[in-house]
Design a protein that fits this description.
seven-stranded mixed β-sheet; binds nicotinamide-adenine-dinucleotide; globular; six-stranded mixed β-sheet; Aldehyde Dehydrogenase, Chain A, domain 1; alpha/beta; Aldehyde Dehydrogenase, Chain A, domain 2
Length: about 500
Amino acid sequence: MGSIETAPAGAAELSYEKFHNVVASGLRGSEKVHHGVNPSDKSPLWDVPIATERDLDEAVEVARKAFESWSKTSWAERQEILGKMRDELTKHIPDMARLLSLEGGKPIQFATGEVMASVGTLDYHSKAPSPGEEILEDGDDLKLTLRYVPLGVAGAICPWNFPLVLAMGKISAALLTGNTIIIKPSPFTPYSVLKFAEMVQQYLPHGVLQALNGDDKLGPMMTEHPGIDKISFTGSTATGKRVMVAAAKTLKRVTLELGGNSACIICPDVDVAKVAPLVALGAFYNSGQLCVASKRLFVHESIYQEMLEELMKVVKGWKVGGTAEEGCMLGPVQNEMQYNIVKGFFEDCAVNGYEFAIGGKAVGNESGFVIQPAIINNPPSHSRIVKEEPFGPIVPMMPWSTEEELIPRVNDTRTGLGGSVYCADIERANRIASQIEAGTVWINSFERPLTQAFFAGHKESGLGGELGRHGLLSYMNPQVIHLYKTDVGKVAKL
Ligand code: NAD
């Protein structure tokens, strides 16, 4: 047997104790369930249904049908609905923040920040202008018009590090551009996305937004499904490559937002005391589980020791622990698999005798996935901690002397997601930034993607991108209309 219809969405008061898939505007259970784990104390969270192939098939069929009318609604009509979704989420900020904190291990102030950023994403899309049309040529005989049309059904596959806001970027852009969407949260963090999909059904036409939680089989089923026109994927580079292979069978459009190994470059002219807190945030925010986090620190040799000491001071001043503890700055790593991966980086550094400027014992409390942050002082450039993305609270710091020797080291990676430059001399900062092979570079700020700015990885950090005007275009097909104005009898002679 497949899945079990339980209730139309919106029929009952929103419960933060029960979680369902959302299919055909209804709340749906399943015979098979699993549950997330609270990373602060490893306690089990609520059961969530595991969608079956039949659930997916039905969702795709419903989404294709819904597309027929949704794609014909106007930009303004869709924006009005996105505005209602924004207002609904705004009403639920404290509850959703609590949920995000429990499922993801974010301290409550940062979980609240993620819900606010999700509200901001809906707000941006409720006001973003349409890409409109472009007249390529308008002569006596011929008019060429480039316009953009929606793709159809989008399938969105999300990671666990920012479950809600990353899903929101996909949902709001897909809906605004006239697509219907099926969203799949990470099985590690399904709760906030399923609850959001449930709470906004009341504003959406039947089947326009559906949400399916699943096991390891659901992602591959979506990428192979002939009824899905586009996959927007955010996750690791390894999985992104699998997505691209599977999508090739039906030539689905793909957007791949993948991993990175971003460099943070600190120039000799900075105010060390002012910059150190920003550098520390860039490396350790969300316990290092941020795709664009600073994963390699390059500090000019003339201020290296001073910067190291300031960074140690900042990080030692932070409270690290389970999210139930008051005033935590860094929470646990989100899941056991990631905890073991990060621990592997600690062990590799220890075995190879690299110096831990701070940190080193790997664990903070045995009851959760808490890891005390670590800075590795000047490991060799071939070390794992320099070469690979740990996606946890451990970062290497290395000195540099000249731009000429620095830039090749910065670009010595197969990834190209982000980078940051701290420099008082803006001309020099721009010169360095423009040589970094990455989709986004921040100057004098830690790494903070903005909804209005296109976000796309270079090299193995991705394909295409999301957010901003260009992000909207990634949910649309270009179409060029050739309009001949002359008498049709004369067209052959032109
Ligand atoms: P992951 O690749 O393990 O999983 C991501 C999603 O893909 C999950 O929903 C998972 O269920 C699904 N999935 C797994 N196998 C699949 C398959 N074969 N086909 C289709 N879907 C499949 O990534 P993760 O561990 O959840 O996230 C961490 C990674 O994501 C890090 O590398 C991080 O840098 C990256 N990330 C990138 C961005 C960005 O915008 N570039 C943002 C956040 C995270």
